């Protein structure tokens, strides 16, 4: 079993390689991945090329109901895709802070902000378990397919609580499990950086948020399909291109986006959330306006199906081990999981 430091290093190295790749919003395949998870054509057209590398599993900005003047933090911001979209929502009186532990990702984000003269954003190098932010300073935290990659999830959730203002909220897009992974997948670093073996059970996800003192957690099944990574033919990325499995689950965005997008929303010290019409709740309901809550999607997913349209090495990144036999085994196990 790898240590937390080894896991963190592996994730950092893999995503640094992705940041140095040629993936960008100029690619139709990269845009198609984002579109599949709820990003509109208008949103994608507004993005700097550097910001989108096809690493999403939802659209947390659509979930978060951001308002002018708010302070927003994006955990694991990567090239800044959600940071730049959030910056438009909060306006010149607001501020969006991107946090990432990968220098190469932040270099892309800062270059994009400078080229496009986006002045209400800032980017910091840090792990999300140790945020360089004061207590009670943030209105909303967003994150896109990142928490599953964090080795110490409890610390990450406690840090979210610490920096949020009373009544603040968290909007997450992420991957979760319906049942425990097979031991050979759970122990795989390669599956970890591919957003699989670091995922936790839905119940545990909820429990960890509640243990960090969040008052409300709403999860809704919207049945999105992560096979889009393989279908789009995106290469050099560590996103999950997946074999069919009905026991892995994707958390992502809801609200303003189509019901095939995914998400989860939690709040600090405020009323529980209500569900927008037509969504199936897994959590508490309450009085938050519609179009502001989270969903949980039960998807057909695995990592690097050997029968998918992309090759195994394409699926898990250009620097990932190219052991075809392992990928075939992984796909086979997840198909039967």
Q: What is the chain-wise order of helices and strands?
A: HHHHEHEHEEHEHHEHEHEEEHH
H/I helix tally: 13
User: What structural class do you assign from the helix and strand content?
Assistant: alpha/beta
Give me the Rg, rounded. 18 Å
Helix content: 25-40%
The fraction of residues in strands falls at 15-25%
* DSSP strand tally: 10
Sum this structure up briefly.
Helices cover 33% and strands 17% of the residues. With 337 residues, it is of the alpha/beta class.
Can you describe this structure?
- The chain is an alpha/beta fold and 337 residues long.
- It has helices at 4-19, 28-36, 41-46, 60-64, 81-90, 103-115, 153-163, 183-186, 189-193, 202-211, 228-232, 312-316, 324-335, and strands spanning 71-75, 95-100, 121-125, 138-144, 164-177, 200-201, 216-219, 248-252, 264-267, 295-298.
- Strands 1, 2, 3, 4, 5, 6, 7, 8, 9 and 10 form a 10-stranded mixed β-sheet that branches.
- Helix 6 links the parallel strand 2 (95-100) and strand 3 (121-125).
- The chain is globular, with a radius of gyration of 18 Å.
- Mean pLDDT is 75; it is low at 237-246, 252-263 and 270-324.
């Amino acid at each position: 079993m790898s240590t937390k430091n080894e896991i963190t290093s592996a994730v950092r190295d893999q995503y640094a390689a992705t940041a140095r790749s040629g993936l960008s919003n100029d690619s139709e395949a990269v845009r198609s991945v984002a579109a599949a998870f709820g990003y509109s054509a208008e949103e994608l057209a507004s993005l700097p090329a550097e910001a989108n590398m096809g690493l999403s599993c939802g659209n947390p900005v659509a979930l978060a109901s951001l308002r002018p003047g708010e302070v927003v933090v994006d955990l694991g911001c990567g090239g800044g895709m959600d940071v730049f979209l959030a910056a438009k929502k909060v306006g010149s009186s607001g501020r969006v802070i991107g946090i990432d532990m990968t220098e190469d990702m932040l270099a892309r984000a800062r270059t994009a902000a400078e080229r496009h003269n986006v002045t209400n954003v800032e980017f910091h190098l840090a792990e999300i378990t140790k945020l360089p932010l004061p207590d009670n300073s943030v209105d909303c935290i967003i994150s896109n397919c990142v928490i599953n990659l964090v080795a110490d999830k409890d610390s990450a959730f406690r840090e979210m609580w610490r920096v949020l203002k009373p009544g603040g909220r968290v909007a997450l897009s992420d991957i979760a499990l319906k049942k425990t992974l097979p031991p050979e997948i759970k122990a795989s670093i390669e599956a970890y950086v591919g957003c699989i073996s670091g995922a936790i059970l839905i119940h545990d996800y909820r429990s960890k948020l509640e243990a960090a003192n969040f008052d409300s957690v709403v999860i809704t099944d919207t049945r999105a399909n992560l096979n889009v990574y393989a279908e789009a033919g995106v290469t050099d990325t560590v996103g999950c291109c997946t074999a069919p499995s009905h026991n892995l689950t994707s958390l992502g965005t809801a609200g303003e986006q189509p019901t095939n997008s995914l998400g989860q929303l939690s709040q600090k010290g405020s009323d529980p959330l209500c569900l927008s019409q037509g969504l199936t709740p897994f959590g508490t309901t309450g009085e938050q306006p519609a179009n502001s809550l989270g969903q949980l999607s039960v998807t057909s997913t695995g990592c690097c199906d050997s029968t998918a349209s992309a090759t195994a090495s394409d699926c898990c990144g250009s620097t990932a081990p190219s052991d075809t036999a392992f990928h075939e085994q992984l796909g086979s196990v997840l198909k039967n999981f």
